User: Which sequence fits this backbone?
């Protein structure tokens, strides 16, 4: 076909009148009305500090309670296949979107794949996130007002369930981790206590360190007493008769002191190297040190557990519904006037470009 055949009249027919006429035919006779139910939500923590600036990272490096990442997670969840599967099980959305058989452009064609159904669902449930206020606007579209309202309410219900499950799951994981550390610390503490008790039962010693110190002190005292008595006896023997009563008494005291000293020395362990006082004292001191460390670890773990419980309760999140699902009275889509104006502008621009292109080519040929 020659360029001369593309007359302005033909271009006007095919580039202006035909597209605009087909669009008018579609909007008047074929397009099915779509109703929109709108809601506005946000995800917030249970407790919010009023001194924190929204969206600002605190000096500790952790996000503030007004961080918007949870709302963004919710946005992704609403548009996911998981949400679509739950909605399909409750509302049979595929059957509803396939109903307007005359609307070949706005309907969901029967037998489409799951991936295409998800794409269609995402085009019918529109979400807009406001990063200034942190609000998420949800627009749910359906071919009748009742279904649009039901769809929006179901989305809000499932979203609230997801936020609660997500929040409690994080809290449970945090508390479970702290509880595990506490249980392990308590188990270690009990093991060290049993080790101390076994040592005391094995050697029949309550506190080898204290008992050894007491025994050493008593032995030293007896030795000093024995030395003093022997010195006194030697002094008296220099000028007194051997059978005098005072010497006999002093000899009896000296014998008693020597007997007591021998008895105290006999009580000291004299077995293998492992049973010597120094070895027993060292072993018992190590056991006491292990018990003290285990106790300190248990106290720290128990405190961390309580702190985790308080922190988990403080960080519990909930879905805040700013605007509940609205019940539409009139259809929102298709927007006839806006779509027609847009189509006319596009057709005029295409016609102008094509017309100028053909005119320029013909002019250069001449």
Assistant:
């Amino acid at each position: 076909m020659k360029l001369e055949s593309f007359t302005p009249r033909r271009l006007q027919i095919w580039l202006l009148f035909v597209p605009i006429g087909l669009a008018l035919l579609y909007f008047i006779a074929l397009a099915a009305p779509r109703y929109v139910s709108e809601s506005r939500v946000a995800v917030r923590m249970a407790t919010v500090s009023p001194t924190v600036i929204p969206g600002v990272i605190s000096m500790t490096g952790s996000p503030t309670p007004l961080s918007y990442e949870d709302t963004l997670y919710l946005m992704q969840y609403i548009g996911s296949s998981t949400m679509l599967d739950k909605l399909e099980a409750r509302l049979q959305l595929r059957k509803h979107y396939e109903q307007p058989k005359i609307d070949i452009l706005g309907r969901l064609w029967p037998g489409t794949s799951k991936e295409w159904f998800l794409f269609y669902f995402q085009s019918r449930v529109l979400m807009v996130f406001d990063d200034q206020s942190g609000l998420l606007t949800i627009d749910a579209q359906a071919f009748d007002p009742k279904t649009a309202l039901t769809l929006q309410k179901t989305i809000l219900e499932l979203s609230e369930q997801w936020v609660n499950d997500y929040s409690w799951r994080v809290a449970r994981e945090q508390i479970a981790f702290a509880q595990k550390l506490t249980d392990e610390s308590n188990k270690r503490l009990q093991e060290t206590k049993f080790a101390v008790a076994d040592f005391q039962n094995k050697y029949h010693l309550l506190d080898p360190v204290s008992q050894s110190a007491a025994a050493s002190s008593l032995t030293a005292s007896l030795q000093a007493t024995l030395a003093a008595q022997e010195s006194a006896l030697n002094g008296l023997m220099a000028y007194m008769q051997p059978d005098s009563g005072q010497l006999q008494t002093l000899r009896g005291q000296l014998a008693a002191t020597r007997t007591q000293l021998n008895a105290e020395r006999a009580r000291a362990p004299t077995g293998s190297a492992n049973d010597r006082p120094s070895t027993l004292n060292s072993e018992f001191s190590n056991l006491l040190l292990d018990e003290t460390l285990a106790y300190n670890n248990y106290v720290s773990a128990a405190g961390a557990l309580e702190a985790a419980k308080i922190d988990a309760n403080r960080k519990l999140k909930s879905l805040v519904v700013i605007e509940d699902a609205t019940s539409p009275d009139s259809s929102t889509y298709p927007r006839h006037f806006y779509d027609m104006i847009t189509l006319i502008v596009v057709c005029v621009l295409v016609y102008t470009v094509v017309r100028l292109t053909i005119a320029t080519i013909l002019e250069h040929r001449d």
Remarks:
- The chain has a mean pLDDT of 83.
- Strands lie at 35-45, 125-130, 135-142, 317-323.
- The radius of gyration is 47 Å.
- The longest helix spans residues 145-203.
